[in-house]
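User: quick one
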Amino acid sequence: MSEDIQAGLAEILEEVAGVAPADATPEKSFTEDLDVDSLSMVEIATAVEDKFGVAIPDDELGNIKTVGDAISFIQKNQ
Amino acid sequence: MSIHLKKGAPGTRVLGLGSYRPRRRVTNHELAQVMDTNDEWIQSRVGIAERRWASDDETLVEMAVAAGGKALAASGLAPDEVDLVVLASASLRAPIPGIGPQVAHRLGIPRPGAFDLNAGCAGFCYALGVASDAIRGGSARNALVVGVERLTDVTDQTDRSTAVIFADGAGAAVIGASEEPEIGPVVWGSDGDQYNAIEIAAGSSTMTMAGQAVYRWATTKLTDTLVEAMEAAGVGPDDIDVFAPHQANLRIVESMTRKLGFGEKTVVARDIVQSGNTSAASVPLALSALLESGEAKSGDLALVLGYGAGLTFAGQVFRLP
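Assistant: Done. Structure below.
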């Protein structure tokens, strides 16, 4: 399951922030490694909400720092 | 016995627009010398290249009078033909008295209905809706609407998340009666649950903004408002010549433009690049810039939207003078 989520997340990252899918691995930090800024994080959050049917409130968004954080958030809340 | 009503106008139209840009131009490079920021960071986050900061003599009243005077001149009306002044601002340091009456007096408008309106960055579009409905309801013949801000007065100039964004300026419109409606219905609303997303907190003198929350709200909730404003006026995206949303962030402008499907035919206001975020002044400043540059012309149909602290939003369609 987490592979499917990772692949779906990689698609969103490529579309929103131009991140190469091969780079979207769990240990990567969105801001430090993938150069995703805070507003792109919002776009990623809304795309994740649409794609995976989860809600990511603004105060939760700050806790999602890595691709792995996002994958576990989706798994827990789906 | 029954209470009589005045007969209002069948429609309204914008008769003239005017604006005032403060003299001092502040580039990203200048800001980079006094705080930890740089041109690339600012341009990629908010799309601003430079902004105008008001000097001490460019007070709210002076800027409002300058923009209002230009709008009045463009309208062809004499000051005594105006009987309503609605001044939108969110940056009065001392809110008593409101400055609408003083601005009217300075412009030689004799004893009009005059008041200030605070709907944050949505102020100009709220004021335009109120003034238009006052004319249609018979409470006024012609109205002056002003949006004016000195956001630098309420900005922490050491906070790089807001100091690079907020700026100063004024814009104004004169509106009057029309046989054919040339201003569509205002579509307005608010999301008061997010009252503290943009605020000057109690005991503070400067504004904070929850950037991510506001960005999410603007890019997900307000497209419907724009569609409703067009539907209320009976027009579609293909009819819109000029799209001038509040200039809060270039990325929000581009997101809205994409979502509404505006193509090359529609001129999109990107005045934020030169003006920063001027709150209630941004929509008339952007429209004035497009008319001055020739990118927009008289008779064009414009879609405007203001949104900001409150949170508030208001939009409408109107024909440019």
